[in-house]
Automatic annotation (TrEMBL):
Pathway: Amino-acid biosynthesis; L-histidine biosynthesis; L-histidine from 5-phospho-alpha-D-ribose 1-diphosphate: step 2/9. The lineage of its organism: Archaea, Methanobacteriati, Methanobacteriota, Methanomada group, Methanobacteria. Keywords: Amino-acid biosynthesis, ATP-binding, Cytoplasm, Histidine biosynthesis, Hydrolase, Nucleotide-binding. SUPFAM superfamilies: all-alpha NTP pyrophosphatases. Its EC number is 3.6.1.31. One of its GO terms (cellular component) is cytoplasm. This is Phosphoribosyl-ATP pyrophosphatase. It comes from Methanobacterium veterum.
Amino acid sequence: MKDTIIRDVYRVLEDRRDNPIDSYTSNIMKDDKKQAEDKILEKVGEEAAEVIIASKNDENLVYESVDLIFHTLLLLVYKGVDIDEIFDEFARRHK
């Protein structure tokens, strides 16, 4: 179960993009194209800063890292990146 969670989250985000409901992820992706991307990028930047602060303060690093990963996945879904491209890139770098 744990090793499939990224794929499961990705699948939900794709569904929220393609079949919007009243949710945070659907709403952030359905704004007009420029505003949606800007909002997602703002969240990625905000979460990256929070990871840095969490690391420096030695607290909430896992929690803040998951927020950053989630919003990075949200950006990749919004931009139409196939999840296998991500896993393929990890595999290529792992050699």
